[in-house]
Amino acid sequence: MKKLKLPRSKKDLTWYTPEQVFGKIRKTKAFKWAYVEEKARLALARSIRETRLRKKMTQSTVAQKAAMPQSVIARIESGEHSISVDTLSKVAHALGKSVTIA
Questions:
Q1: Pair 72, 101: CB distance under 8 Å
Q2: In whole angstroms, what is the distance from residue 85 CA to residue 24 CA?
Q3: DSSP assignment, residue 68?
Q4: Residue 19: C-alpha distances to residues 12, 13, 27, 35, 38 (Å)
Q5: Which residues make Cβ contacts (< 8 Å) with residue 68, sequence separation at least 6?
Q6: Which of 19, 32, 47, 59 lies 20 to 30 angstroms, CA to CA, from 9?
C-alpha cells in the first residue's frame, strides 16, 4: 500500500485559481445554475444559524419548537444538506420568522 505524503508547511502546498480548477465548464449554463443554487443554500444555512444565535437559542430548543430532532437542525446549519419548504417553514416558525418568496 502506498503511503500518503502530507505537505509539511504552506509553502509545500500548490494553489490553483478557479479558472485552473474549473476551466471551461465554469462558463456553462448548468455550472452557473448549480453555483447560484449552492450559494443560496449556504446563505440560507448561515442565516438560520445566525438568527438562532442572535435569539440565544440552542439547536435543541429550535428543534423542540419545530418538532424535529436536533440533528436535523445541525445538518441544516452545516450547509451540507438541502432543506424542504415544509422543514424550512417549521424552522422559521420556531425562530419567530416566516417564509416568503419574493
A1: no
A2: 34
A3: S
A4: 21, 18, 10, 14, 18
A5: 87, 90
A6: 19
No. of H helices and E strands in the chain?
Answer: 5, 0
Lowest pLDDT segment from 4-8, 14-18, 89-93: 4-8
Which three three-digit cell numbers place residue 31? Answer: 455550472
What the block records as the C-alpha cell of 28 is 456553462
Q: How much is the pLDDT for 15?
A: 85
User: For 29-69, how does the pLDDT look when each residue is reduced to its tens digit (9 = 90+)?
Assistant: 999 999 999 999 999 999 999 999 999 999 999 999 999 99
Total residue count of the chain as it appears in this document? 102
Q: CA geometry: angle at 45 spanning 24 and 48, to 5°?
A: 155
Q: Which CATH architecture has domain 25-94?
A: Orthogonal Bundle (1.10)
Which run of H or of E encompasses 74? helix 70-78
